[in-house]
């Protein structure tokens, strides 16, 4: 039947190896499959199968029908999507051949502007594969016999993955034993560098395995992976492990340091609006300076406390810019500690444009470039304060 | 696609909690923090930073957000971490300035007393022995006051025994500072806190005085209760 040919069918052997977790090109081994014909792997009907295959069960029939309906539906959606894309391209005056998904999104945003908050509620047009969840192909043959040996676990892909990990673990142990027996004990294997990546989240693994996992199962999987990657020779299986990890953006690169601006006299400067608790500071750091500090039109003695003055100087001293730049700041709101903290953050953020990448990373590690999110904790009902409770009475 | 576009698409750690459910947090017995659990403490000391970068530890932190520096962190030459800790312990009701003044007055008094001794000394050998830096004196005094074991009450068979157990570095430091402060807050109203603190620190520096005695009493008690040490393991 032409319908079933479109379905992706897994090979009837057990899963071994990585590629079976991901959809590959449709491989339909048995050619056309007729509903009322029994087909075994060799091609001739076996004796004990004869009684089963004369009549297909109702369950099997309805399954086939549902699969056919779904397949037709997806085909229809795909057709509509492609036609729709071409229409959109014509409407927007672009070339239909090179109309990408980003262009589609832009067109939808232009043609159907939405004031809804949640992006998922706004109108969208995406490829059917992204909207309709992928289904597994036929997991059993016409006689109802499952292809996968772990089918009756109801999560064959998940358990195959776990079994694979166990097998690989043993392989690595054997490898280690071999190396020890050859007497190359002193040779330390290269370490698997996992920093800069994290384990892919539960949703992604579910999409890959096409099975829903419980939280406990996901945690178990990650723990197994952690244990596996801690093996001294895990670097051999680096490719396998990295398939289940996703890269993170380096924190410094996220920051996107802005370029210096020039004022009338040609001096470079940078501005930043910083906050701490409820105080706001507008800080301007001007290069080619002599270390003049102006806060709300007075000098650093705007702050009476030593601690606050030290906070202002901290980023300048840390990055060796004390006496090389001028600082002009206006601040309002809250108390002295918050105001000095806000100015400190402002100065640090402005200094990023003046110093090199290494110093920026050092400032980041020192906590100078992080926004301080601490605020006053709210008072709770039934208590005197944020933490203080009323007098406890036994009766 | 530009490099920035790629980088923005890459997932990154969000350092701050987006949804803060106070009551939920309390129910879960987690310490409340505006930061996510994986956010690292800042390292502001230049020597420690150099060490981090040399050893390669800094590379591991490239992808992890760092907490904001505290209000008492700075790179001044006069900055001492232990003194900051001590000032916080001396502080009451949030009066940081008062506490700082008390401790700094105590340091000044120590310097004065040591200088007096220095000028009184006749030989070079004597002068070399006198320590003038109050911060060095403070560090050494605390070291001398730190206990090595502590007692903890453990119930066995209806009776509560004081069992000696090992002590962590932080706990030892805390106890030393606590005792020092308590001894300095004694009843004599004529002699104020900074002066008393200065005397106590100098005595502790020489391994004498009330605080060191307190530590030694604790050690003696631990020695007498040696027999119960195995109660630690039930």
TrEMBL record, chain A:
Keywords assigned by UniProt, alphabetized: Ribonucleoprotein, Ribosomal protein
Gene3D superfamilies given in the database record: 3.30.230.10
Matches recorded under Pfam families: Ribosomal_S9 (PF00380)
Keyword Aminoacyl-tRNA synthetase part of the UniProt annotation: no
Keyword Transferase tagged: no
InterPro entries linked: Ribosomal_Su5_D2-typ_SF, Ribosomal_uS9, Ribsml_uS5_D2-typ_fold_subgr
Highest taxon, organism lineage: Eukaryota
N-terminal signal peptide: none
Annotated segments matching region Disordered: 376-395
Family assignment from sequence similarity: Belongs to the universal ribosomal protein uS9 family.
Protein name: 28S ribosomal protein S9, mitochondrial
Source organism: Daphnia magna
Automatic annotation (TrEMBL), chain B:
Keywords of this entry: Ribonucleoprotein, Ribosomal protein
Domain of life according to the entry: Eukaryota
SUPFAM superfamilies: Ribosomal protein S7
Taxonomic source organism: Daphnia magna
Gene3D superfamilies linked to this entry: Ribosomal protein S7 domain (1.10.455.10)
Protein's UniProt name: Small ribosomal subunit protein uS7 domain-containing protein
Family annotation (Pfam families): Ribosomal_S7
InterPro entries listed in its UniProt record: Ribosomal_uS7, Ribosomal_uS7_dom, Ribosomal_uS7_dom_sf
Family in the record: Belongs to the universal ribosomal protein uS7 family.
Domain Small ribosomal subunit protein uS7 intervals: 57-226
């Amino acid at each position: 039947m032409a319908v079933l040919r479109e379905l992706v069918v897994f090979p009837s052997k057990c899963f071994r190896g990585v590629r079976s977790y991901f959809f590959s090109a449709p491989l339909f081994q048995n050619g056309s499959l007729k509903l009322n014909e029994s087909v075994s792997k060799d091609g001739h009907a076996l004796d004990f199968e004869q009684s089963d295959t004369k009549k297909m069960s109702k369950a099997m029939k309805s399954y086939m029908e549902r699969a056919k309906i779904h397949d037709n539906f997806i085909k229809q959606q795909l057709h509509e999507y492609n036609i729709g894309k071409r229409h959109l391209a014509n409407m927007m005056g672009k070339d239909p051949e090179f109309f990408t998904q980003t262009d589609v999104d832009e067109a939808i945003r232009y043609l159907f502007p939405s004031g809804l908050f949640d992006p998922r509620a706004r109108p969208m047009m995406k490829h059917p594969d992204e909207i309709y969840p992928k289904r597994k192909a036929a997991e059993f043959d016409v006689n109802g016999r499952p292809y996968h040996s772990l089918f009756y676990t109801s999560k064959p892909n998940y358990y195959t993955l776990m079994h694979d990990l166990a097998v690989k673990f043993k392989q690595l142990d054997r490898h280690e034993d071999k190396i020890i027996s050859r007497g190359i004990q002193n040779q330390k294997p290269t370490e698997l560098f996992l920093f800069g990546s994290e384990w892919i989240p539960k949703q992604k693994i579910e999409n890959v395995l096409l099975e829903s996992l419980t939280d406990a199962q996901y945690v178990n999987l990650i723990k197994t992976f952690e244990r596996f990657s801690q093996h001294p020779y895990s670097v051999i299986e680096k490719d396998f492990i990295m398939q289940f990890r996703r890269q993170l953006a380096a924190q410094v690169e996220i920051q996107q340091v802005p370029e210096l601006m020039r004022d009338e006299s040609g001096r470079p400067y940078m501005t930043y609006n910083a906050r701490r608790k409820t105080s706001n500071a507008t800080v301007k750091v001007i290069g080619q300076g002599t270390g003049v500090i102006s806060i709300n039109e007075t000098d650093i003695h705007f702050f009476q406390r030593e601690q606050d003055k030290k906070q202002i100087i901290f980023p300048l001293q840390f990055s060796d810019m004390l006496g090389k730049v001028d600082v002009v700041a206006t601040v309002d709101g809250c108390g002295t500690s918050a105001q000095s903290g806000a100015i400190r953050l402002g100065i640090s953020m402005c200094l990023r444009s003046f110093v090199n990448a290494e110093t920026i990373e050092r400032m980041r590690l020192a906590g100078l470039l992080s926004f301080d999110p601490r605020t006053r904790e709210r008072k709770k009902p039934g208590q005197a304060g944020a933490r203080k409770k009323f007098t406890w009475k036994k009766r | 696609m530009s490099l920035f576009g790629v980088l923005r698409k890459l997932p990154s750690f969000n350092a701050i909690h987006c949804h803060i459910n106070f009551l939920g947090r309390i129910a879960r017995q987690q310490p409340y923090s505006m930061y996510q659990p994986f956010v690292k403490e800042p390292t502001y000391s230049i020597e420690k930073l150099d060490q981090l970068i040399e050893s390669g530890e800094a590379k591991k932190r490239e992808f992890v957000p760092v907490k904001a520096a505290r209000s008492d962190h700075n790179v001044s030459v006069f900055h001492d971490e232990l003194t900051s800790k001590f000032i916080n312990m001396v502080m009451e009701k949030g009066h940081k300035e008062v506490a700082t003044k008390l401790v700094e007055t105590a340091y000044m008094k120590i310097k004065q007393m040591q200088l007096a001794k220095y000028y009184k000394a006749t030989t070079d050998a004597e002068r070399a022995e006198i320590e003038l830096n109050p911060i060095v004196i403070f560090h050494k005094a605390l070291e001398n006051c730190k206990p090595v074991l502590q007692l903890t009450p453990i119930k066995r068979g209806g009776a509560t025994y004081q069992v000696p157990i090992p002590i962590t570095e932080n706990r030892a430091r805390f106890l030393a500072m606590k005792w020092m402060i308590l001894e300095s807050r004694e009843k004599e109203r004529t002699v104020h806190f900074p002066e008393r603190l200065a005397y106590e620190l100098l005595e502790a520096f020489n391994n004498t005085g009330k605080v060191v005695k307190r530590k030694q009493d604790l050690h003696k008690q631990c020695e007498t209760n040696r027999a119960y040490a195995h109660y630690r393991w039930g």
